[in-house]
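Weekly sync, protein design subgroup
Attendees: M.S., D.O., the rotation student, P.L. (late)

Item 1: inverse folding check
M.S. brought a backbone from last month's batch and wanted to see whether the design step gives back something sensible before we order anything. D.O. pointed out we never logged the input encoding, so this time it goes straight into the notes. Structure tokens as presented (348 positions):
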């Protein structure tokens, strides 16, 4: 019997037996007192990987992003980000709620802004009407961009604009390891360009919970205070941090596997009679549009009959995300199902 193939997101993975063992074995303490050795080890290790001074373990990527925005901005200031950015689209309006800041939304190419677009959106300082631009936020890889990614060179060019205008640069790195696996860039070099980075361990890396916010020592000190106020001060969080450490040690190299599977899905979908177009696949996200022969809800239902769970991602749009829990057998089954759907009499 084939298990359910859940393609809705790379958040659906469950800890492996080895990861669970690492969790059980973790030395822990009260992290609000700074006494959890496993949390401290995770924060230090992640910071060192990205060439940053310090880290802060948080329950979610939404919290790491929102804390970063809160620390970087003041009310009446503005953040420049792409219109598709998670911080704008999927964090419940948290920027306005938590930080009373506004957003300048850039219409980039598949989630990616150019240095020119960033510069054009910086507000002139001497005009009383405008909010003050304070922060630029990138997302790597870009979720709504279909897993597109910035190269280090592109990041450096945007960082140059930020430095020239005294703006901070934040990275929403929910899938930063996917971006790095695809670009071949070194994590350590990110520290040269970003003032803060949110790294999620519960996406492609397969930990059950956890994101780490990275930044300078003073930034993280302030962020720790905001985390406490938001209710994110956890106690024996080392059990969770142990899963994250395990993921960093064992689940980074295998991301290429997820990318290969996503690429094969792209090829299968490009040949499918029911697909209008597939966004270019660069990492582990496959976004495609169905043509009129299949409505998105019937497509999702047809997959469900084959034990495949997917969700629509806008009108006639579907997103598949490959991850750790999609085995080779499942992947082959999926390719067969997608091919067989060509021959099916399609309903109206
Ligand atoms: C998943 C995700 C986040 C964080 O989500 P949480 O569920 O709060 O951990 C942030 N940014 C992007 C681009 C994401 O895909």
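Designed sequence read out in the meeting:
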């Amino acid at each position: 019997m084939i298990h359910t193939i859940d393609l809705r997101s790379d958040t659906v993975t469950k800890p492996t037996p080895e990861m669970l063992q690492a969790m059980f074995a973790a030395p822990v303490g009260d992290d609000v007192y700074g006494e959890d050795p496993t949390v401290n080890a995770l924060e230090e290790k992640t910071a060192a990987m990205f060439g940053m001074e310090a880290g802060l373990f948080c329950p979610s990527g939404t919290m790491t992003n929102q804390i970063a925005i809160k620390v970087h901005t003041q009310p009446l200031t503005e953040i420049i980000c792409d219109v598709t950015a998670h911080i704008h689209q999927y964090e419940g309006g948290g920027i306005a709620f938590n930080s009373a800041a506004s957003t300048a939304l850039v219409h980039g190419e598949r989630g990616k802004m150019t240095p020119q677009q960033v510069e054009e959106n910086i507000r002139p300082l001497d005009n009383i009407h405008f909010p003050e631009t304070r922060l630029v936020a990138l997302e790597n890889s870009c979720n709504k961009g279909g897993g597109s990614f910035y190269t280090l060179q592109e990041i450096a060019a945007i960082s140059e604009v930020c430095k020239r205008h005294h703006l901070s640069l934040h990275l929403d790195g929910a899938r930063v390891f996917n971006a790095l696996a695809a670009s071949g860039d070194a994590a350590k070099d990110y520290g040269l360009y970003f003032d803060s980075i949110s790294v999620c361990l519960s996406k492609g890396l397969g930990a059950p919970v956890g994101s780490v916010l990275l930044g300078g020592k003073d930034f993280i000190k302030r962020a720790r205070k905001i985390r406490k106020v938001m209710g994110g001060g956890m106690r024996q969080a080392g059990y969770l941090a142990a899963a994250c450490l395990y993921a960093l040690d064992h689940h980074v190299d295998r991301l290429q596997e997820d990318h290969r599977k996503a690429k094969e899905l792209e090829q299968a979908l490009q040949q499918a009679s029911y697909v209008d177009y597939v966004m270019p696949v660069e990492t582990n996200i496959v976004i495609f549009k169905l043509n009129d022969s299949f409505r998105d809800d019937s497509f999702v239902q047809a997959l469900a009959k084959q034990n495949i769970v997917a969700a629509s991602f806008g009108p006639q749009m579907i997103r598949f995300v490959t991850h750790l829990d999609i085995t080779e057998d499942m992947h082959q089954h999926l390719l067969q199902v997608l091919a067989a759907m060509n021959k099916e009499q399609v309903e109206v």
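Discussion: Residues 60-62, 65, 86, 139, 143, 172, 174, 200, 202-203, 211 surround pyridoxal-5'-phosphate (CB under 6 Å). The two ends are 31 Å apart (CA to CA).
Action: P.L. to compare against the previous round before Friday.
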